[in-house]
Protein: Retrotransposon Copia-like N-terminal domain-containing protein
Amino acid sequence: METSKLVSLPVTLKGGENYLLWARTTKAVLCGRGAWKHIEPQPQGDKPLSEAAETKRYQEDQAVLAILQSSLDVPVLEAYSYCEDAKGLWDTLKNVFGNVTNLTRVFEVKRAINNLAQEDMEFNKFFGKFRSLWAELEMLRPATLEASILNERREQDKVFALLMVLNPAYNDLIKHILRSDKLPSLDEVCAQIQKEQGSLGLLNTKGGELVMANKAEHNTEHGFANKSNYRSYGNRPYIMCDHCKKPGHSKDKCFILHPHLLPNSTYGSNKRRDWKDWRGPPRAHIAAGESQERGGTSLRQNNGEGAALVASSEFV
Structure:
C-alpha cells in the first residue's frame, strides 16, 4: 500500500442518505490501493506474524483508518471517532447507516424519479440529475435473476405506488411502514391504512358528523316544540306567528323581528328600508287619531245641538 501521501475519497459521508454511494466509491479506492484487506482480512492461518510484520500491518491499518476518517462529515466523525481500527469503523458505519433493505431511501429515490421534471432546466443538467437517481436506485437494487427477489421487489413496487398517492395526513404512517426491516404486503398496508383512517375519523370526521346530527336534532326539537301554532289546513299546516299574531309564517321568520328577511330587501346597505314604515303607523297614534276623530264628531254634534237650541229660543 502506498503511504507517501494521504488518499482523498471523492464522496463525503453525511449520513444514511448517501451511505451506499460513499461505500461503493470508498471500496473502489481502497481496492485500487491494495488496502481492502484491512476491511476484509484474509485468514492467516495459525502462523503468528513477526514483530516487524505486525508493526507494518498496524501502520497500514492506521493509514486506511485515516483515509476513512477524512471522508466523514464533521458530525459523523465526532460521533464515531472512538473506533481504533479501519475494520471497526467500517463495520460501525455499515450497521448504523447501511440498512440492507434501505426501504426509506428506495421509496425516496423512486418518488424523486416520478416527480422529476425538466421545466426550464438545461437538458444536460436535467439528464445528469436523472441519471444519478437511476444509478443510486441500481445501487440500492442491484441486478439479479433470483425469482424470489424479483417477486419481492414487484410487491414492494405496488406498496410504493400506493404510498406515493396517499393523502399527506398519512405521512406518519408511511414513515412507520418504511422503518420496518421488511416491507409489509399490500394487504397488510391496506389494513394499517384502514385503521389509521378510523383514527383520523374519530378525531375529525366523525366528530363533525355528530355535531351535525345534534344540530339537526336541535332544530327539529325547537321547530316543532310549539305544536299549538300548527293547525291542519288540508294537506298544509296552518302556521300562526307568536309575535304579530298573523298567519303564514312562524316567529323565527317574522319580518318585524327580522327585517332582513324581506323580499328584495336592501337591509344593511346605504338604502336601508325602515321596517317601521312597512309595519304601518304605531297603534298608539292610531288610537289617538281615533279618539280625536270621535272627539271632533261629538263636538260637531254638540255644536249642532247648541245651534238648534239657539234657533228655538229665537223663535220663542
